[in-house]
Structures are given as C-alpha cells and as structure tokens.
Amino acid sequence: MPLELLKEKCSNAIDVVEIGATASEGGSRDRVVKVGGQTGLPFLFEEMDAPNKPQVAIEIFDTEPADWPDTLKEPYGEALKNPVDWAIKCEKEFKADLLALRLSAIHPDSGNKSADEAVKLIRDVLSAVKIPLIIIGCNDEAKDNLVLPKIAEAAKGERCLIGDALQKNYKTLTAACLAYGHNIIAESPIDINIAKQLNILISEMGFAVNRIVINPTVGALGYGLEYAYSIMERARLAALGGDRILSQAFICFVGQEAWRAKEAKTTAKECPEWGNELERGILWETVTASAFLQAGADILIMRHPKAIELIKKNIEELMKR
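The structure corresponding to this sequence follows.
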C-alpha cells in the first residue's frame, strides 16, 4: 500500500499588499503589483497556495552613487547622472516591474537637497515611468520627517510603498501614508519582538495592518545572512500559525547589503586569487537574494541587472507547481 504524503495546513495566510494604482483607481500606473497571500512556507505547493509570486524592484538613487564599484555602475552608464533617465532605463531596457527610489541626497551630510527638490523629482519620475514606486528616505530622522510627508502628498493616489518607519520614529510617516493612501515599510533590527511591537504601534494610529510591509534588515552572504534568515523564518512560522500582527509581507534590501561586501566589490587586481570581480559581485547578490526567497521574502530590492535577470528566472522555476 503506497504511503500517503503528510500535509501540514496552516491556520493563517500572509496579508496581500497592493503597490501602485491604475487610472481607474485614481493613480497613473499601468499595473498594480501584488505580493503576499501565501498559506504556507515558501514554494511548498503540495500543502500551500501562493497567489502572488515574489517581486524584484530595481533600486535607483536621486544622485549618482559614490560608493558603487565600476562593475555595478557599468550597466547604467550615463543614466546614473539623472535619476529620471535612470528610471526610464530600468523600465524600458531592464523591464523592471517595480522601482525603489532612495532619496539619499536629502541627507544633511550627502547633499542636503530640499523637500521641494525631492517632490519635483518624485513628480518627474511618476510622469516618466508607469510602473509602481517604492520610495525610501535617507535615514536621517529629522530630514525624513520633513521630506517624506511632502513626498506622500505629491504622490497622492499612486499607492506607493514608503519607508522606513522605525520604532522611535514612526508617527509622522504613518500619519502621512494614512492621509494620502500609501503603504508603509516598518523596519526592525533583526528582532521579531520589535517588528511585532512596531506593527502594533502603527496599527494603533488607525493604519491597516495589511498595508504594512516588514523590513527585517537582512545581511548579505557571509555577513549575517543565516541569522536574518532564521529571524524571518521564525516570524513567518508565527504568522502562519495565527499571529495576525506578524502576517505582513517581507521586503529585503539585498542589493544594498550584497554590494557593500568586500567579496562583491574588491577588484581582481587587488585580490587576483578571488577571480573576476564582475561575476563574483553578480553571484554574491544573486545567492543572497535566492536565500531570502526561501526565507519568505516577498519583495527583493536589487541592483545589478544581471543578478536581477538570474533571480527572476529562479522565481519562475520556483513558482512552477
């Protein structure tokens, strides 16, 4: 008599988050990107359903990054000097489904651009491309509290994903996202308890928990990946077991972590025994991303087009029933 496969069924599902709004919904995007909805652990289709596949967003900046290695800059060329051109290149040439725009130049120590300049850029990018937008601040609390609410107002109706809200600095951004109809990224420092507490604090302001996306602050391959993986896995198990306050989608800033690792950016001239730096950097980002897919990542923020191409192929293979 053949053995029957024991299937585990979970009592809860991950919340579905919608990013972007079409004209019929009051926005100007050409699509709505949905993530979440899983009823079990990643890709175990014998015992779960996943109505929405993980998504990859290409990360762009409001100014040319000074710390990127040449191997990462090369695919974007002159477009790096103009964020609108950069956004267009990502949509048209690299077929991006999502853009993640980081406002690094508003930081007081990195250009100190004004809120008006940031608002103009957001409007220009929204006019130039039609894919949904993720908007990230500069990680200076005072400047983000000044700029991000104005950004949220300028993008009203577009249902962007805006971040990051922190445990000690969440009220201003939460109020802005609530007022102008955006989703919010809640950042916690690789800590389930802080992630849960922050979600509670945000929801107590009247913000729907299914519009929160958790940023668990991951690490790259060789730089804490396994610890971040275990925290994500524990949070996802708790969510599937019935914890509604942890039932949000995950966003992982893979490119940021992978490309600051010395193994990704050290040149072959500096360390010839490590081999070609382009292949090494692409693989460092790809392997990091593939690991977090298995941990339950719903949105991957990535940088190199070749790594993005590889991970998209990986997602398509994983999503086959």
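The chain has a mean pLDDT of 96.
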